[in-house]
Amino acid sequence: MDSVLDFHALRALLEWQMELGADEAIGDTPVNRYEVQAKPPEAAPALPMEAPGQREEGGAVAAARKAAGAACDLDALRAALGRYEHCELKRGARNLVFSDGVPGARVMIIGEAPGREEDRAGKPFVGQAGQFLDRMLAAIGLSRDRNVYITNVVPWRPPQNADPTREEIDMMRPFLERHVALAAPELLIVMGNISCQAVLDTRGITKLRGQWHEAWGRPVMPMFHPAYLLRAPSAKRETWADLLEVQARLRESA
After folding, report:
1. CB atoms within 10 A of CB 182
2. Element (H, E) at 223
């Protein structure tokens, strides 16, 4: 009787294991796991730590640095971007979104990447978020028509407005750095995490905003992106404080 029960019990256990996907034996004889001494896993070799801004340059980044460095003015830089073929985003975009505003203005704003409206118009910040940005600037006496220059980290719209990858940001950084040097603003406003990563080599806009940083020899104020403010109106209060910081900085150096 016991042997019959054992048979049915073992068969039930076997069928249960088969339902779980265990349909193949890996050995001819059973193994008592309690008698096998566990062998500690071998430690994986330590990877070298990357210092900020010291990632190894690939061919695309090296090509971008060479092309950007050869540009002697903004028109030449725009032409160099137009010839650059290493960024796949270019193939799916309608237009190269280079800049808007007044070159040589005291304030330069760096956004993240073009959206649908920007891709159609070929200018940064022209959609709903751009209209809100104009109202933000007007509150402290700034305007893209008079004293602000605007660009993006990435000049081509990513598919479905996805965030640019780290590789895409890295290959666009030389163009952005040269863009800042040629536009020669007094200070930079970087809007959103993508812009912080490209300019400050770090993320965390909630912690970064409201404090002055420095990059490429210029003071940098990180702010929430206008598109985020439209989704989270409660953050407008912090952004107003950031705008007042910019206004005070400009007045001090006037």
Report:
1. 17
2. strand 218-223
Cβ pair 57, 69 in contact under 8 A? no
Strand 187-191 versus strand 107-111 pairing type: parallel
Residue count (the chain) = 254
The amino acid that residue 70 corresponds to is A
- Look up residue 32 and give its two tokens: 């008592």
For 16-45, how does the pLDDT look when each residue is reduced to its tens digit (9 = 90+)? 555 545 555 555 555 554 454 444 445 444
- CA nearest 132: which of 227, 210, 52, 209? 227
Q: What residue type is 59 in one-letter code?
A: G
Q: How far apart are CA 132 and CA 37, in angstroms?
A: 66
Other CB atoms within a 10 A radius of the CB of residue 141 amount to 11
Q: What is the pTM of this model?
A: 0.77
